[in-house]
Amino acid sequence: MKTVFVTVGTTSFDELIEKITSVHAVKALKDRGYERLVLQVGRGSFLPDAHTCPHIYLEVFPFKDSIAEDMEQADLVISHAGAGSCLEALGAGKALLVVVNDKLMDNHQLELARQLHLDSHLLYCTCSTLTETLRTMDLSVLQPFVPGQPKKFADFMKRALGLQ
User: Fold this and answer.
1) d(CA 135, CA 68)
2) Does residue 86 contact residue 79 with C-beta atoms inside 8 Å?
3) What pTM does this model have?
């Protein structure tokens, strides 16, 4: 079953949850062949139920000890722009659409999403452009994310500092 996993991490991002469960967003997902929508809603107060999205199989939960299995089962991950959530999805090799919360002040999330988009690792949008992005996105342009190599960096730093 083609699955979309949405995560807001430990935050509250009700606007994203409301938008992704809207009639128009669900239709865009269905038109792309997605049949299952799994929502990790964090501390949010908006908890959609099956009646909210009658045309797609819906699962909702606030938190789990690990979302690794949900990520693994997903064909598409839609995430808030938190660094941890982004890196977990990219590290799992998943197609990633990041939804930036443009209502946050001093929005470092936009900078992260923009750079990872420029490097072709993810697509990004805001809640106001989510449905249109779902309709028009081309996931085939995404490139795999190669995680950093901390040992090589540590060795470089040791050499640079004359410790080796």
Assistant:
1) 27
2) yes
3) 0.87
- 110: how many CB neighbours lie within 10 A of its CB? 17
Structure tokens at 100: 């930036």
Which tokens in the block code for residue 45? 């107060």
Take residue 99 and report the two structure tokens written for it.
């939804």
Asked whether the beta carbons of 100 and 92 are under 8 A apart, the reply is no
Quick one: tokens of 86?
A: 């982004």
CB 59 within 8 A of CB 38: yes
Structure tokens given for 145: 């994310």
Kindly give the residue spans of alpha helices, DSSP state H, lying in 108-149.
108-118, 130-136
- Taking only the tens place, the pLDDT of each residue in 78-101 is 999 888 898 899 999 999 999 998
Q: Which two tokens stand for residue 161?
A: 């500092």
Q: Which two tokens stand for residue 68?
A: 């690794």
